[in-house]
Every structure is written in C-alpha cells, then in structure tokens.
C-alpha cells in the first residue's frame, strides 16, 4: 500500500438491516464429499453427504419448531429453497450452515441454496458476498 493510503475500514454485513426479518446469518460451507457443485453426478458421494441440509443450533431448532431430519424452507427476500434440518451443537445460535452447493435436480423443490444468495460484490476487490446474507427458516 502506498505511503499515505488509508487502511481498509470495517463494513457491516449488507443484510444487517434485515436482522428482524431474517434472524440467521447464513454460511455456505463446503460439503465433506463435494467441492462446490463438483462431483454432483456421483450418487455414492451424494448419498454419503446425506442430501441438501441446513445445520442449526438445537436451541434455534426448538424456538423455530424445527425437527431434526425433516424438511424446512430456508428463505429471504431473494428466494427460498428446501433443506433437511440437522441440529448440531457445533453451530452457534443465530447461524445457519448450508454445506455444499447441490445441483437443482438433486434438491427438494428443484432449487438450491443459491436461491437465497445475492450477486452483490464486495467494496474491496470486487469479490463475492455469499457469506453476507441473512435468512429465516420455517418448518413445512
């Protein structure tokens, strides 16, 4: 960085103003048996992964009436998708983790997690903001 240049500052997540409507920070983490949407054609790997799912803190599941192993709708102002609920104490309260990017043809309702992700770019470097979104989740 050149002399006299300013350091980057903190920018709050873009969806912060929607916290009342969408209480969960969404993390789209890598799946264990896939790389993004790669290897989606391999049924044995899809089966090992257990299908499209969202991991939530057990307390959040109780508050929202979500039952482990059942389908729920993950949604925000951009769209929605259906994911299997997995309760996990490894996930902090207020966070929803959706591992992998499942092919739509292998997703319930034929929509995947990309349905709730925006295409805005970061202010520094023009990178993806796919970790900068909020969602809500409701049982079917």
UniProtKB/TrEMBL annotation:
<dbReference type="GO" id="GO:0043546">
    <property type="term" value="F:molybdopterin cofactor binding"/>
</dbReference>
<keyword id="KW-0560">Oxidoreductase</keyword>
<dbReference type="InterPro" id="IPR009010">
    <property type="entry name" value="Asp_de-COase-like_dom_sf"/>
</dbReference>
<feature type="domain" description="Molybdopterin dinucleotide-binding">
    <location>
        <begin position="24"/>
        <end position="130"/>
    </location>
</feature>
<keyword id="KW-0411">Iron-sulfur</keyword>
<keyword id="KW-0408">Iron</keyword>
<dbReference type="InterPro" id="IPR037920">
    <property type="entry name" value="YoaE_C"/>
</dbReference>
<dbReference type="GO" id="GO:0051536">
    <property type="term" value="F:iron-sulfur cluster binding"/>
</dbReference>
<dbReference type="GO" id="GO:0050626">
    <property type="term" value="F:trimethylamine-N-oxide reductase (cytochrome c) activity"/>
</dbReference>
<dbReference type="InterPro" id="IPR006657">
    <property type="entry name" value="MoPterin_dinucl-bd_dom"/>
</dbReference>
<protein>
    <submittedName>
        <fullName>Trimethylamine-N-oxide reductase 1</fullName>
        <ecNumber>1.7.2.3</ecNumber>
    </submittedName>
</protein>
<dbReference type="Pfam" id="PF01568">
    <property type="entry name" value="Molydop_binding"/>
</dbReference>
<keyword id="KW-0479">Metal-binding</keyword>
<dbReference type="InterPro" id="IPR050612">
    <property type="entry name" value="Prok_Mopterin_Oxidored"/>
</dbReference>
């Amino acid at each position: 960085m050149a002399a006299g240049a300013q350091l980057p500052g903190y920018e709050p997540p873009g969806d912060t103003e929607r916290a009342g409507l969408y209480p969960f920070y969404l993390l789209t983490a890598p799946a264990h048996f896939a790389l993004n949407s790669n290897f989606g054609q391999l049924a044995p790997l899809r089966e090992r992964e257990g299908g499209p799912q969202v991991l939530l803190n057990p307390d959040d599941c109780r508050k929202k009436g979500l039952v482990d192993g059942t389908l729920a709708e993950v949604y925000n102002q951009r769209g929605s998708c259906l994911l299997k609920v997995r309760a996990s104490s490894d996930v902090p309260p207020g966070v929803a983790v959706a591992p992998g990017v499942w092919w739509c043809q292998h997703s319930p309702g034929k929509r995947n997690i990309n349905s709730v992700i925006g295409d805005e770019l970061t202010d520094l470097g023009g990178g993806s903001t796919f970790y900068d979104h909020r969602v809500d989740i409701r049982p079917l």
